UniProtKB/TrEMBL annotation:
<dbReference type="GO" id="GO:0019005">
    <property type="term" value="C:SCF ubiquitin ligase complex"/>
</dbReference>
<feature type="domain" description="F-box">
    <location>
        <begin position="1"/>
        <end position="42"/>
    </location>
</feature>
<dbReference type="InterPro" id="IPR001810">
    <property type="entry name" value="F-box_dom"/>
</dbReference>
<dbReference type="Pfam" id="PF12937">
    <property type="entry name" value="F-box-like"/>
</dbReference>
<protein>
    <submittedName>
        <fullName>FBX15 protein</fullName>
    </submittedName>
</protein>
<dbReference type="InterPro" id="IPR036047">
    <property type="entry name" value="F-box-like_dom_sf"/>
</dbReference>
Amino acid sequence: SMPSEVLLKIISYLDAASLLAVGCVNKRFYELANDNGIWLKLYSSSLHPKWTIWKMKSKQTETVSLGCPAVHDKKPGYWKKEYIFKQTSAFKARVMRLVKFLDPYTGLPCKNKEAMKVSGLCWIIVLKDKNGKEHVVEKPNLSFKDTSVTILWYGTDWPCLDTLSTLKLFGVTPLLPGQSRPPNKNGPRRFSLIAEYHLANLTESSVAVGADELVQLFSLSPGLLVGIWKEKNEIAFVMANLHYNQLLERSILGSATVQYVPPPNKPLLDDIDSEYGLHDYTLHLDLHGRNCMYLCGSFKYLFCRKRDIENGYLRLRVVNLQDNRKHLPVIGTLGICWETDVFKGNVKDCFVMDLTLLDETGKPFWCFSAAVRMELSTKSSGLYDYMGHIYTAGYSDAEGTVCLEFVWLEETKEYIIVSLVLYVSTKKVNSWYGTNY
């Protein structure tokens, strides 16, 4: 029963976050909270004095905003949108400045954690069933590595697997960052779609990574691992592996419905003869099991001759089977650790591979973080230095393929990497360099 003029006067004392909350009460409050005069005052007060076009003191702001053309000539909510756009643009610029500092070792942003803290970034998954109902899962556990972050969600109230249709992974940030109070879970937030996965026939359509006594692991590209209870055939946990390359951009710069698409690479002119092929690549390879690191290696001066290009792929040989000086020992027993509220486990004979391939200028050329399974090969080791079973592991996507060979040494209880070869798609190379290999 209170007159709108009185309500409008009361609402005018609220800050931006409270205005957005009030607008969710009902239709009348939404219209009042969209008032251009209130939002123009907030917008002008947020401007630096030398940039404001009104050039007025704070006491004059309210008087002018109620009668100036900037209020009456605009549709309701115009200045609210302008204020939010200005705040989010300044926030994104601030975060992107942090990730410009690159680690000379990996070629990736070295201040990812600081940028995530400044942005208030978190990640959630949204499970959608076949009837359109959505189930939001928050509060993940984070595990940071040199080139990736592993995000683990678990709970006791997962929807029935048979009823689910899709899973969406979002980066979530406060809609109005930089406010004096910490971000509120129930406050206004901005969603950036990172990836969408189809869960229909999950166990048949996805790659089985491994299993232990309690769960089975299934991998969905890119970088998602779903743990299924063996007894109930229900979701136990979801694990996402996100590579630092474009991590913040994908988590912040996308929208709730459209994924962020990075700009195309601007190739540098190369004065090397084309017959020389590709050269001076650098590879960083991490193998881990979420909580433990098995291998962290760096390989420089990788190259590919013209004769190494066939069937639409360029071959980069990193570790040669015949050159035992470059063979790599793997620390520990390979496996992926998982946990829930009650149970913990370790699925053996699989691991998470973080690959970062840098071009000759040090820019990330091909990057991923994904779960990989190991398989026992039918052939036995023909090497005099190592006598034992051979295991193979591999990863493949639209940009390339990775092939690994391990030898298991029973005497020392360790794996040795005796072969590592990368096959990079010529389509990827041509689009990156603007050439035609």
